[in-house]
Amino acid sequence: MGISMIWAMAQNGVIGRDNSLPWRLPRDMAFFKEQTLGKTVLMGRKTWESFGGKSLPNRRNVVLTRDRHYEAEGAEVIHSLEEGFRLAAEEELMVIGGAEIYSLFWAYADRLIVTRIEETFAGDTTFPELDWSDWHVVSETPGIKDDRNPYDYRFVIYERTT
Q1: 35-46 b/e (C-beta count within 10 Å ≥ 16 → b)
Q2: In Å, what is the CA distance from 109 to each residue of 41, 56, 67, 106, 128?
Q3: Which of 4, 41, 83, 96 would you label with 34, given CA atoms 20 to 30 Å apart?
Q4: Residue 87, pLDDT score
Q5: Residue ranges of the chain with pLDDT lower than 70?
Q6: What does this protein do (predicted)?
Q7: What is the C-alpha to C-alpha distance for residues 156 and 88, in angstroms, rounded to an integer?
Q8: Residues 9, 114: contact at Cβ < 8 Å?
Q9: Rounded-to-integer distance, Cα 46 and Cα 53, Å
């Protein structure tokens, strides 16, 4: 079925700070939920733990970790890219982070769903440096800025060109 990756990113490439998001954008969280509901979401251990070790409702939660003894109540635990590829053969696999997991799956992704926030933020995690020349924009929607969503942002969907 394929591999999609979804994330929000500041202008300076920041995607996280202290295992959390450095911004608050409720409309982005709603967009994330809309894009992932009913699908399989694959994440690394740190991302899983950033959710408090709780599964995202109405989604098949999969945690990829090197730790063979790791347990994640409410999620399946896998230990290799190959196990992730088997899941992607059955259904659309939504890779949701973190940075190391994005790097592992980048070469195999078919679609990217990116919230581009038009601000810079301090953070300790940035999206990996990547070659964007293999991707083209298939849709771009400006986000609605208001009291609860104080930044300019846009939802951009890319597909691989090659």
Answers
A1: bbeebbbbbbbb
A2: 14, 22, 24, 5, 14
A3: 83
A4: 84
A5: none
A6: Key enzyme in folate metabolism. Catalyzes an essential reaction for de novo glycine and purine synthesis, and for DNA precursor synthesis.
A7: 22
A8: yes
A9: 9
CB atoms within 10 A of CB 108: 16
Specify the amino acid at residue 43: M
Q: How far apart are CA 10 and CA 3, in angstroms?
A: 23
Residue 49 contacts by C-beta under 8 Å, 6 or more apart in sequence? 19
Burial class (CB in 10 A: 0-12, 13-18, 19+), 34: exposed
C-alpha distances (whole Å) from 150 to each of 27, 89, 131, 144 are 10, 39, 30, 9
Q: Label the pairing between strands 111-117 and 153-160.
A: antiparallel
- The alpha carbon dihedral of 26, 27, 32, 38 has a sign of positive
Containing 30, the helix (H) or strand (E) segment is helix 26-36
